[in-house]
Every structure is written in structure tokens, then in C-alpha cells.
């Protein structure tokens, strides 16, 4: 074998290479270079966006250092879960919390990922899903709503019938109908609930000896969300989060990020949402730290779907919003305990809902099907 000169060395290499097996083709298939380049650029964009939003996320997600179990006598839902239990002549200060004392609102998820901490950045999977849902919501039809009309929502509910702070006793699924007035000005008449075979007027009570003229009632707002008020909310997700941050009541011991997540969930339940507002709410939720995607979930009507969820680590309970797999419409909500406590073992379902119908009707107590039947009889 010749070993002198550069040409000889090149010849030796060629001869040796000929004796070796052909190298395996490690090149990417056509188009894969561009695919991975696009993925890299998207990741860079997400990192920049995450750095910009991190300071705001931290403000929203101040996690309490003590992991206090709030099952010993404290409502966990705050000031945005209204009408969860029917009542007549509610005191003004207790109206929004009517029934929240006996109902746990949260979720049951089936994924086994570790619980998201409040300081964590939003899960990319949850953000992607919520933005897809927002796109679908924005394309839905907007109803025409007058102030003398009522928002109608029919749902299936499975509620905790146990004593507050005690073991969870999940009741049987039952149907519930709610009519809420759309008047923007102050009113003490907050609608009607039909549940368990009875009609329950929702009336804001007066302090003892008070003059009704001095207490006209509650205006439309986060605690009485009408269609027009919802339509007035910012459609920019960041601006919407700031607006809710300023209006939603804090709950002692609850992470502020969890309070905002539950506030948005409350607006998804027994309201008729303007399409642009619905889209903005989903986009805003995608920016709340600790929100994760859940692959499988079941609502109170036993409908299976996709979900996004967030754990209230202080309460040991997880809230989940469930969406239809095919068209991404909102199906309902479910909850479960995430650790053993006096309320039950981890995994215990504490509450579930399933929204079946939404509409705008002319008066309380009348369902859309009743209106349709009346119209047909008049023809």
C-alpha cells in the first residue's frame, strides 16, 4: 500500500472505503428540515412571549405558602358562582354565595401528571386547545337580546348533598332550568330556578327596616352577568384578565389565579355569551398559570370530551371544563378531590354539570320548547 504524498493517502482512503458497507442514509425526508425549522421558530416565539408575560403571571398566581385545607368551614368558590342553590329572598350580601356552601365546584380528570403549581407557566397543550376553542366560539351566531328578556339555560346537575365541611355525598343527576333577567339597571329580582320539581324565585332581600327606595338592587356586572354586560367586556385577553382581576372578589386562602379561573368558569355556565366575549374568555384562561389539558373527561350527562383543568392546591380540589371532541362546544364542568381529607378520599367526585340548552326567552318559567309549541298552535 502506497503511503507517500497526499494523492496516495486519498487513494488509500478510497480503497478502504470500498471495503466498508454502504453507510445508512441518515438524511431527513424532503420537507422535514422546514418542519423542524418551523417548530424551532415557534418555540422561540413562545419563549419570548412567556418572558413578556411572566411578570403578570406571577402577580396573578401568588401561591400561599401554607397548604391549608379549607374543607373546615369555608366556601371555595368566591363571588362568581351564583344561583348554585335556589333560595327565596336572599340577603344582598349572601346572594352570590347562595348554595356555594354546599356545593364543591371542580373537576375530575384522568391524567396522572403532577398537579400544576400556581407559579408554573400555562401548559402549551392547554393553551393550544383553548385557542382552538376560542376560534370556534368566535364563529358562532350572536343572538339579538333585549333588556326585557331572559337568558335561559337548561342543564343536568350532580351536586354534593352532604353537610358543608363534612363527607361528600353526591346526589343523583337531576335537571335544572334557570332564567336570568337581562335588564342592565339595578334590580332585586335576579331570576327563577326550576329544580327538584319546584320553582324558586331569586330575590335579593333587604336589611331589616330598610326603605326599598334606598336599595334598588344589583346592577349588571360580574355578579349578575347579562348579555349586554358581557358584550361590553374587553375582547383583548390581557385586558379582560385585568378587568376580571379588578372586579372578582378574593377568597381567603385561595390563589388569585384559581379565583380568576373559577370566575371565568362561572361565566361559561348559566349565561348566554356573545361570541367575541366567549372567545376572549377562553384566550384569557389560556394565560392563567397552572391550567393544564386533560385528555378524557365526562360531564353530568355522561358525555365524554376533552378538558382543561386547574387544581386549587389549598383546597385539594381540581376544576375541569369539558368540551365536545368534535365541535369543541362547552359541555359542562366536573370536580374531584385531589387528596384525602375529611370530605373524602382523593378522586372523589364532588360536583358535575352538563349544559343541554341555551336560549333567550321573553319571560321566566317559559322554555324555548314551550314557546315553539305555542307558536305552532297559533298557526
How would you characterize this protein structure?
With 379 residues, the chain is of the alpha+beta class. Helices cover 29% and strands 20% of the residues. It has helices at 5-19, 32-60, 124-138, 227-231, 237-247, 256-269, 275-285, 368-378, and strands at residues 150-158, 174-181, 189-195, 198-203, 292-298, 304-312, 317-324, 330-337, 349-361. Strand 6 (304-312) and strand 7 form a beta hairpin. The protein is globular and about 45 Å long. The N and C termini lie far apart (106 Å). Residues 1-6 and 21-119 have low confidence and may be disordered.
Which blocks of ≥5 consecutive residues have pLDDT under 50? 1-6, 21-119
Overall radius of gyration: 27 Å
Widest sheet: strand ordering: 4-3-2-1-9-8-7-6-5
Approximately how much beta-strand content do the residues carry? 15-25%
Gap from first CA to last CA: 106 Å
Helix content: 25-40%
Largest sheet: 9 strands, antiparallel
> How many E-type strands?
9
Structural class: alpha+beta
Quote the average pLDDT. 76
What is the helix/strand order?
HHHEEEEHHHHEEEEEH
Which geometry do the CA atoms define? globular
Number of helices, counting only DSSP H or I runs of 4 residues or more: 8
- Oligomeric category: single chain
Amino acid at each position: 500500500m502506497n503511503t507517500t504524498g497526499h494523492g496516495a493517502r486519498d487513494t488509500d482512503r478510497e480503497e478502504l472505503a470500498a471495503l466498508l458497507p454502504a453507510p445508512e442514509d441518515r438524511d431527513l425526508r424532503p420537507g422535514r428540515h422546514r418542519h423542524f425549522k418551523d417548530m424551532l421558530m415557534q418555540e422561540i416565539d413562545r419563549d419570548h412571549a412567556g418572558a413578556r408575560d411572566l411578570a403578570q403571571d406571577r402577580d396573578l398566581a401568588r401561591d400561599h405558602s401554607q397548604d391549608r385545607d379549607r374543607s373546615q368551614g369555608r366556601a371555595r368558590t368566591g363571588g362568581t358562582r351564583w344561583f348554585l342553590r335556589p333560595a327565596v329572598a336572599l340577603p344582598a350580601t349572601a346572594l352570590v354565595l347562595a348554595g356555594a356552601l354546599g356545593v364543591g365546584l371542580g373537576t375530575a380528570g384522568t391524567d396522572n401528571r403532577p398537579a400544576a403549581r400556581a407559579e408554573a407557566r400555562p401548559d402549551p397543550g392547554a393553551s393550544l386547545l383553548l385557542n382552538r376553542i376560542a376560534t370556534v366560539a368566535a364563529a358562532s351566531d350572536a343572538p339579538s337580546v333585549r333588556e326585557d328578556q331572559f337568558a335561559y339555560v337548561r342543564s343536568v346537575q350532580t351536586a354534593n348533598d352532604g353537610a358543608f365541611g363534612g363527607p361528600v355525598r353526591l346526589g343523583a343527576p337531576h335537571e335544572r332550568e334557570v332564567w336570568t333577567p337581562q335588564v342592565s339597571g339595578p334590580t332585586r329580582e335576579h331570576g327563577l330556578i326550576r329544580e327538584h320539581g319546584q320553582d324558586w324565585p331569586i330575590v335579593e332581600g333587604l336589611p331589616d327596616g330598610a326603605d326599598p327606595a334606598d336599595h334598588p338592587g344589583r346592577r349588571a356586572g360580574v355578579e349578575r352577568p347579562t348579555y349586554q354586560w358581557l358584550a361590553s367586556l374587553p375582547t383583548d385577553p390581557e385586558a379582560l384578565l385585568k378587568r376580571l382581576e379588578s372586579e372578582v372578589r378574593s377568597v381567603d386562602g385561595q390563589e388569585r389565579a384559581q379565583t380568576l379561573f373559577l370566575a371565568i368558569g362561572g361565566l361559561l355556565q348559566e349565561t348566554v355569551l356573545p361570541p367575541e366575549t366567549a372567545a376572549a374568555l377562553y384566550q384569557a384562561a389560556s394565560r392563567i398559570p397552572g391550567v393544564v389539558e386533560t385528555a378524557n373527561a365526562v360531564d353530568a350527562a355522561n358525555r365524554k370530551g376533552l378538558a382543561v383543568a386547574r387544581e386549587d392546591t389549598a383546597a385539594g380540589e381540581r376544576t375541569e371544563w369539558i368540551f365536545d371532541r368534535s365541535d369543541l362546544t362547552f359541555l359542562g364542568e366536573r370536580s374531584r378531590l385531589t387528596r384525602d381529607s375529611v370530605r373524602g378520599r382523593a378522586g372523589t367526585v364532588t360536583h358535575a354539570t352538563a349544559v343541554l340548552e341555551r336560549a333567550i326567552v321573553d319571560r321566566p318559567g317559559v322554555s324555548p320548547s314551550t314557546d315553539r309549541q305555542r307558536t305552532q298552535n297559533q298557526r
